[in-house]
Write a structure and sequence with these properties.
710 residues; five-stranded mixed beta sheet; four-stranded parallel beta sheet; 20 helices
Amino acid sequence: MSNNQLLWGGRFNPIIPVIYGEVSEQYKTMLQYYDPDIIFYTSDIDQEYLKDLAPYNPKEYCLLDDPHAYSEITGIDGLYFLSQFSHYNNVILPNQLYLVESPLLGYYDLNFGIGTHINNVDVDLTKNYHQIEVTPEHFNRLHEIIHTNKPISKLSLAEHNIINVLLRSHEISYTDLEIVIAQDSGTIDDLLYFWNRKLYSSKTILYITTEQLEILKTDPFFGAVLYDIGKDNFKVVSMSLDQQQVLDIIEGVFKPMKLPVRFTYTTVNSFPFSIMDGAGARFIGREEQSTNQLLTSDNGLFHLPRLSFTDHVAYSSQKWAIDVEISRIEPYSKPMLRFPYTTSTAFIFKAIHGRITTNRNITLYTNGNSVSTVEVQIPHTRQIIHQLITSPVINGKMQDTSLRDIRYNDASNRLAAFIKAFRNNFHDIEEFFTDIFWVETFEYLIRNNKQAGDAINFSQLKERCILKLKENGIELKDSQNSPENEKNLELGLKETLERLCSYQVFFKGFNLKCKNCSSTFWYHINDIAESVACKGCLHEFTVPVESNFYYKLNDLIKNNMFHAKDLRDGNLTVIRTLVSLKNSCRMDFRYVPQIDVLKNYRNAKPYTDLDIVCIVDGKLFIGEAKHTSTAFFDKNSQKLTCLHTLATIAQEILPDTIILSCYENPNEKLEKAQKGIEHILSKLAYRPKIKTILLAKPDSSHLGGYMYFQ
């Protein structure tokens, strides 16, 4: 405790009691507000139990029983913040107080940061200030020295320049001053309350045992120091003494001091207190300022920001964290990149350690002396997915999985080309492929058996649209009485058709009939000249005058919807699932098309394939998307369903969520698939969240909107 509270950040980190292997519900609630870099625990606590307590992602777990664990308690000495004060200020330096035998040693250590000895670091950092050396001869006058000289508290220095979680509760005020009275130094509840009470307070909390009070009440300067700390009201609290015992202390110790300060007994019915949020008041000092750095490519140099309160941290054992946010600059926005917990920060920032925080950003660790700049490389989505699958970071260490490589396949190439044709505009993909008129039009062009049947002219398109509007109760009206008239329909359809042509969903061209063999073929507009060669008999004929445009459906669209005229392709289900996930994200969505997963570089046959692999606001999603939910129960050559394969892969790569998605759901097979994979996972160590998506059938909700009437 004493070392921890003197480092930058002070006591604003919780100490959690584990009783009989369990953490209380109140402390579990408290943990949700913290994002620890390191978790220290004792050997009688199961590490796996700790991992399930809260959604944190520390860089490591340290066993306190290990003698090397205390070397991991590193940070910047609070004395560096002396740079924010005048050189005329006083600083206390204890010298050989370990020679003193007194219960008050712990009192001064916990409440004032005055230990038993000085070191070279303390001497060096305070050399430009008025140093007050306190030796065993001065120990009994320590309160007098504190009151008279008003030295800068090392504890308050450690709380400068931090933006930390300050818990708010309706039960107490964050401005309360408290004195915690412990029956003796062995009552852990009082000590835990003293330490963790600070998480709710920006003011001083004092810890005093009854033995220490017996000595302090004879010190004439004890009351003066209390008055210096708080000139209004002290609440007196105890977890080990009953109300009457505390009232007796107030009457027998504090009131005889005759201070213009009130001491009132306060009952603590339950601790930790209930928590409203973690948005309490800001603290003393200045905030460390954020800096913006611009990279003009995916590679560059990242300059580590300098500390505001010192130009140089002289001792390499002192480390601190740098929080990094990465945003892409796009024409109308700056979406922030988020990363799964299993991301290797060394894959992005070279030669420096780091971790992924609970808000899915990056924290880097430095002592400021080894490097001032680091190489940064922003990985492409495929690169980061490859790392997440083949070598995820688990418990702070990169671990090789049995999955050695990923690769694209024919289906993924078709899907990638489909989305690229729409210029990655997921909104427009959703609009067109949930609109009953356009989906039925696409399917009609794919499945009809007419010559050049996958091409349609504008008159035919308008006729189909008018029929669909009538089916849904929308009759065209006179142009003077309603915007839903034929002229506006033509304008709206032409604008929408132009948009589809710009996406190359339709190609512009002509249906031309050969005068020699009477065959009709479609010709792209770029292939038309004064005369054209028949695609059947190769006879050249002249293009007729005033030929109508015919719009041919791109084979790329056809091949993502159907294998053949009556056999649907699963790609459209995958595409619409990606659209659904994109719509659910708040700021960052990255995906790869379907991938084959290999366990051997030289094996041409993949171990399995994954339909869905994406990052949604920093969370890794994997899953399967089937046109019909019955396909979830199809078995592979090892007689395993995709549910078993997903559960097995999840144990190695630890995805946040497994997705099961389908377009048709006969006999509620999707719900049965969810129960099936949950049953499989119940017998395994890692259990990700399961999310099912039943894609909505195309409907008439868009009919009559801006895509139809201008």
